[in-house]
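Possible regression after last week's pipeline update?

I re-ran a chain I had predicted before the update to compare outputs. Posting the input and the new output here so someone can diff against the archived version. Not blocking, just want to make sure nothing changed silently.
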Amino acid sequence: MDQVVPGSGIAVAVGNRAVALFEVDGRLFAVEDTCIRCGSSLTSGTLRGHDVVCPGCGWRYDVQTGCVMGVPTLCIDTFEVDVVDSTVMVAATATWRRRGA
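New output (post-update):
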């Protein structure tokens, strides 16, 4: 958990998926690491509260829900995160799968 710096994200591989981990207020969130609009890595984005801003197009994703700000039906996958003895574990399957996936 020490590798996740508040206010920024880190990329991790979960199976064959690219996932971005973010810490907000001491809690970890995991979302799909690819913007559905432009394909940029969200790990490189700017975290503002619970929103990560895509560095490529500026779309904002809520890291709690994976949804695009202002468009609650347009979302990326989110993943359950658990921390056991300082080891971060990310679920291998999405908690919420985006529509059409």
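Follow-up from reviewer: compared with the archived run. The two ends are 29 Å apart (CA to CA). Marking as no regression found.
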